Every structure is written in C-alpha cells, then in structure tokens.
C-alpha cells in the first residue's frame, strides 16, 4: 500500500511541474505571461546583401527562429521582372529563393518581400524587407514610391503591379514600350495601395499600373485594369530622420528615438487606375425561358445593332428589341403569334466580336437554334387543364346556387406600380412596370386622383417611357407636399404586343411634407460648370446628382434624414456621367474629388457647405467611413495588440 501512495505522490508532483511549466510559456495566453513581441532576426544572408559582381542561382536567408512567408506568389516581387518567377520555399528558420537561369548583366536585382515575413509562432512581422545584389560593379540604390487608387472611388487598389520605363529621348516612345515590352523595374501595391520600386538607377522615368492577367509585364488587353501618370519622375535622395517609440512594457512608452535615414524621392506618386469602357466583346450566352422572348448576352457593349436573318421564319417586323442601359444584353420580344407556336427558332445572327489577337471588332455570323423551356404547346395544355378544372368547380357551385364566379380563368398583362407604396418625396415619381412591351396604352383609362376619397379630383400627369427599357414608364405629376393621391389603371387600358390586357390596378400614396426632409447647399471654390456633384450613401449608391451652376453653387432638396457623403467629378466631355480613361487616345479618366467629411442630414434643417475640392491631397480626401478595410482591419491581431488587451483584462 505504501508503494502505491509513493507512486501517486510522484505522479502528482510531475503533473504540478508540467502545469507550472505550461503557465510559464510566454505564448500560452493571458494567464501564462505576455505574448512574444520580438520579430524574427536575420542571422546570415548568402550571398551577402548588396554584393556586386554576382549572379546567384539561389539565395538563402537564415533567421534566429522559425519563420513563414505569407502568400509568396503575390507578395514577393523580383525586379527587373522575369517571365519565370522566383521560387520561394521556407524550411524552419531558412528561406530559399531560386532565381531564373539567366540574369541580365550590369543590373541591380531586388527581391522585395514587403511585410510577408513573420515568425511562425506569434506572427510578429519582420517589417518591410528587400534583398538586393548586382550582376555589375555597382548597386543602384534609388527608389520611387507612391499609391495606386481607383480613379472613380479614390479607394486604394491592392495587388497590382507598378512598373517604370526610362524616359525615352529617341523615336521609341515610352507609350509604345508599355504595350510592347516588359517593365524595366516593378513593385506591387499593398492593401493601402502603396508601392515602392527599389534598385532604381538615377534618372527620369514614367510610371504605369497594371493588373497583369497574362503575366507578361506589359499592357496587352483592354480587359486589364491599368493606369499611368502623365508626370515624368526624376529620382533624388536626401538625409532625413524619423521618430521611433521605445516601449517600457506593453502599456507604457519609455522614450522617443530619433533614427536617421535616407529619404528617396519621389515618394508620393499617384496613379489613377481604371478599366476600359469598351471591354472585349464576345457572345456569352443565349436564354429563352418562354415562347414570347429570347435574350442574348455579350461580354461588352457595341454601337452596332446585331442583325437577324430567319431560317424557319420571316424576320421582317418580327421583334420588339429591348437593349439594357449597358448595351451588353438584348431581349427580343416576338410580335407574331404564329412564331410562338414554333418549338425552335432558327436564324443567322450577325454581330460585332473582338478579335483576341488584334483587339479589333469584326463582324461574325452564328447560326442559332433556340427553344423555350416551357413550349407553347405545354402551356396551352396546362391552360386547358386549368379551364376544365374551373368548369367542374363552376358546376358544383351552380348546384349550390352559387353564381358568383362566372368569368373563366385567363391570362392578364401584369402591371406593377413601383415607388408609390407609401410616402413619396415631392421630387420623385412612380414607375409603371410592365410584363412585356405594349401595343397600345389608352390614356383615358389611367387616372391620377388628388385628395381623399370623398373629394377626389383629376390631377394632370405625363407618362414618359424609360430611356433604356421598353417595359417601364415614369408617371410625372405636379405633386403637392402633404397631399394624398390615388393612381387607378382601368382594365384593358394597356394591351401587350401579344394582345393580352391588364386587370384593373389601384395604388394609394402620399406626397411627403417639406418639413420631413433636409437640404444641402454647396458653394464650390475654384470649380467651374464642367463639374458635377453627387450626394452619395456610399461609392455605389447615389442619392442625387447636380451640375454646378454659374454662381458656383449646387443645391440638393428633399433629402431623407441620415448620413451622406459628397463627391465631384469634372465632366470633361459634357455627357453628364463619369467616364473612364482610354489608353489608345492617352485620355485619363475624368478627375474625381471627395468631400472629406460626413454630412448629417436632419429633417427641417439646411446644411451649408463651402468646399474647395483640390484643397487636400487626393490621398486625404476620402472620409474614413468610406475607406473600408484599413491596413489594420481585416488581419489577425499582432502580439503587441494582444498584450495590450491582456493587460486591460488583468486591470479590469
């Protein structure tokens, strides 16, 4: 029995020691001491960093602890670029980079890891790190840095290449180079849109941004996101200092250290990136759900209207064509009821398609055969079955003396009144949405009534077809704030192209009172009437749009209470919409500016704003609430942040 107790005591002691050891583990969590905040340290590099006259096949970096490289394919950039990317492998404390077989002579090579290297346990980053060497006798040490932003939203663009070409003085222009040869040197943007191109020789350069989808390091297709700066950048450097905070512990700072460094210029180049409006055009797919219509989808718009030549039908005046606003989707409605009975429509379809090798649009003709998922015969059979079922039910009702439902089932044209489901602002209008294009509309069967039921009067209105839809109309009225309205559409007032009529529709709504809204008045400084101001909820939702007046002012009325933002673009071509760029004509996207503050809209209040759009640098214009994910958000908390949280929990 004594031996049993001895073994028990020994096991208990071992367990206590193990638990104590676990509690002393610095990476074990809030109860076991602080997390390790020390970043990995480089012990050796082979070849040595900055070595000249070398053409290594492999580079090895040894650290004092196990490390990892986050997404090496995207984050590690070798410059000058090579069609054969370097292979990056990690084994414990060692990073190996295998280089291409042939390196250029008398060239400085950089391998930019960015912030991809961190320790394997706590994820402490090494910090921005770039390895470099030279195959010649000297090392080029200049740098060019800046940001790539979306030209329309001013948001940072992550993960795009930024390349440079030496400013040319001969007959071969730098613009020809962008579409014909790889970049001289490259960098890649991080999640803040920042880039830094290192190992640059003293000189003058032009900058380009490119989402290099085909990996050839130059612009080849209009589908690639791209951008360029009109400015020529000349490299320079000067001695500078920066401040670094020394922490006594995870909560208390000890001192500020002044660190000298070489400041390379330019460090604030801005490239506004964009995608061309005229994307490569290809026939994407066709769709025919019902006999009445079929739809053709393209990957891009075209000014050319596709031509139809019927094989088993006469195409003359056979369709009503409905093109969407983007011009890349076309719906064909069949006007001839005899065509509805055809199980299959066969025809020749001629359209413009982009040649992938030349980028030029050329005419192409395809033979198409389209059949509906629900054929005319199947639907007629279903309708006959529904009628037979109704007749049997009517006979049973008659035997009970019930003659209340004597109208057999039939198909009606669907009519939907949108935007008038409750309170309507005085500057908005209801929309009449239809199931199909119409053959006729009887205006005498559409009534807009003003006032309560006991004292309604006819009100004037206009019915305006939508610009980009054959299926919608805007009902414009002379709205009186605070008043009630009724929109009535009589039966058979609207007849579709297939002869079916609408059922009667009634929609009640109220025009909101003026005091339920706020207003915004903007005084623009140093901006002319080519500018258009947009009041927005976010980058994708526009509340109202207005062109700057001759007095430099813009007014927005009938704004619902809430938060809003404001931006402005220079409408260079006067078409009323923001236009993207075009590289073929070297046309930059229209300039966009953001008001850098959030606007609070309150009912019954007027906001008066003075705004000079170009007063702030472009990188400081966009409000924080619209910037989205920052450099800190969206990533795992670092060891220092977790230690701060740990100390707060201990003190609470």
Number of helices: 7
Strand content: 35-45%
Overall body shape: elongated
Rounded average pLDDT: 87
Q: Which percent bin holds the helix content?
A: 10-25%
SSE layout:
Layout (H helix, E strand, L loop, with lengths): L1 H22 L18 E5 L11 E6 L3 E3 L2 H4 L1 E3 L7 E5 L2 E5 L9 E7 L2 E3 L9 E6 L7 E9 L10 E6 L7 H5 L6 E4 L5 E7 L3 E7 L15 E3 L4 E2 L1 E12 L5 E13 L3 E5 L9 E5 L5 E6 L8 E4 L8 E5 L5 E6 L2 H4 L4 E10 L6 E10 L5 H24 L15 E4 L4 E2 L6 E4 L3 E4 L4 E5 L6 E2 L2 E5 L6 E6 L6 E6 L4 E3 L8 E7 L6 E7 L6 E6 L5 E6 L5 E7 L2 E9 L21 E3 L4 E3 L4 E6 L12 H4 L11 H13 L1
Parallel strand pairs: 10-19, 28-37, 38-45
Antiparallel strand pairs: 1-2, 2-6, 3-8, 4-7, 5-6, 7-9, 10-13, 11-12, 11-14, 14-15, 14-16, 17-18, 20-21, 21-24, 22-25, 23-24, 25-26, 27-29, 29-34, 30-36, 31-32, 31-35, 33-34, 35-37, 38-41, 39-40, 39-42, 42-43, 42-44
Description:
Mean pLDDT is 87; it is low at 1-5, 13-29 and 629-636. Helices cover 12% and strands 39% of the residues. The chain has seven helices and 45 strands. The strands form 13 sheets. Strands 11, 12, 14, 15 and 16 form a five-stranded antiparallel beta sheet that branches. A five-stranded mixed beta sheet has the order 28-37-35-31-32, with no helix packed on it. Strands 39, 40, 42, 43 and 44 form a five-stranded antiparallel beta sheet that branches. The chain is elongated and about 105 Å long. β20 and β21 (293-298) form a beta hairpin. The two termini are 49 Å apart. The protein is mainly beta.
Task: Put the structure in a nutshell.
The chain has 652 residues and is mostly beta strands. It has seven helices and 45 strands.
């Amino acid at each position: 029995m004594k031996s049993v107790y001895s073994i028990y005591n020994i096991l208990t002691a071992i367990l206590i020691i193990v638990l104590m050891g676990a509690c002393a583990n610095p990476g074990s969590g809030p109860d076991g001491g602080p997390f390790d905040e020390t970043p990995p340290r480089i012990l050796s590099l082979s070849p040595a960093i900055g070595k000249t006259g070398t053409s290594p096949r492999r580079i090895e970096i040894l650290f004092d602890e196990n490390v990892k490289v986050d997404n090496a394919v995207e984050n590690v950039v070798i410059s000058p670029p090579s069609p054969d990317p370097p292979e990056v492998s990690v084994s414990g404390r060692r990073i190996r980079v295998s280089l291409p077989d042939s390196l250029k002579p008398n060239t400085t090579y950089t391998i930019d890891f960015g912030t991809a290297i961190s320790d394997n346990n706590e994820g402490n980053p090494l910090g921005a790190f770039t390895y470099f060497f030279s195959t010649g006798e000297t090392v080029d040490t200049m740098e060019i840095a800046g940001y790539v932003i979306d030209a329309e939203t001013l948001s940072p663009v992550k993960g795009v290449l930024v390349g440079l070409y030496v400013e040319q003085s001969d007959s071969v222009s730098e613009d020809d180079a962008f579409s014909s040869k790889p970049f001289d040197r490259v960098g890649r943007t991080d999640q803040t849109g920042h880039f830094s191109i290192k190992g640059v020789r003293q000189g003058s350069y032009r900058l380009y941004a490119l989402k290099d989808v085909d990996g050839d390091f130059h612009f080849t297709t209009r589908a690639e996101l791209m951008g360029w700066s009109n400015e020529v950048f000349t490299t320079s450097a000067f001695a500078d200092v920066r401040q670094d905070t020394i922490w006594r512990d995870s909560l208390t700072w000890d001192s500020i250290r002044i660190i000298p460094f070489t400041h390379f210029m330019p460090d604030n180049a801005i490239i506004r990136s964009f995608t061309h409006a005229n994307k490569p055009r290809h026939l994407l797919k066709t769709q025919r759900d019902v006999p009445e219509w079929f739809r053709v989808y393209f990957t891009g718009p075209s000014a050319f209207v596709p031509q139809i030549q019927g094989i088993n039908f006469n195409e003359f005046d056979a369709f009503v064509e409905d093109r969407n606003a983007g011009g890349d989707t076309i719906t064909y409605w069949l006007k001839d009821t005899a065509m509805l009975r055809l199980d299959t429509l066969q025809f020749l379809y001629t359209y413009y398609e982009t040649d992938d090798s030349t980028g030029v649009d050329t005419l192409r003709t395809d033979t198409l055969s389209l059949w509906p998922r629900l054929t005319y015969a199947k639907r007629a059979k279903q309708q006959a079955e529904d009628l037979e079922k109704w007749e049997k039910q009517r006979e049973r009702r008659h035997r009970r003396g019930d003659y209340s439902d004597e109208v057999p089932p039939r198909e009606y044209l669907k009519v939907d009144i949108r935007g008038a489901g409750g309170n309507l602002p005085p500057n908005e209008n209801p929309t009449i949405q239809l199931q199909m294009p119409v053959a006729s509309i009887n205006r005498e069967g559409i009534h807009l009534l003003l006032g309560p039921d006991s004292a309604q009067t006819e009100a004037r209105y206009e019915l305006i077809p939508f610009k980009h839809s054959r299926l919608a109309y805007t009902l414009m009225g002379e709205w009186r704030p605070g008043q009630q309205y009724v929109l009535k559409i009589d039966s058979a007032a609207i007849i579709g192209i297939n002869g079916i009529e609408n059922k009667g529709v009634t929609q009640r709504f109220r025009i909101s009172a003026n005091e339920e809204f706020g207003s915004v008045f903007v005084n623009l400084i140093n901006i002319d009437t080519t500018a258009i101001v947009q009041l927005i909820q976010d980058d994708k939702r526009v509340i109202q749009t207005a062109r700057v007046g001759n007095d430099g002012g813009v007014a927005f009325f009938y704004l619902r209470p809430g938060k809003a933002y404001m931006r402005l673009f220079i409408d260079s071509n006067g078409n009323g919409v923001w236009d993207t760029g075009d590289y073929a004509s070297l046309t930059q996207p229209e300039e966009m500016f953001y008001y850098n503050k959030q606007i609070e809209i309150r009912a019954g209040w007027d906001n008066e704003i003075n705004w000079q759009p170009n007063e702030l640098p472009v990188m400081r214009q966009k409000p924080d609430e619209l910037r989205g994910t920052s450099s800190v958000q969206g990533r795992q908390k670092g060891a220092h942040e977790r230690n701060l949280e740990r100390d707060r929990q201990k003190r609470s």
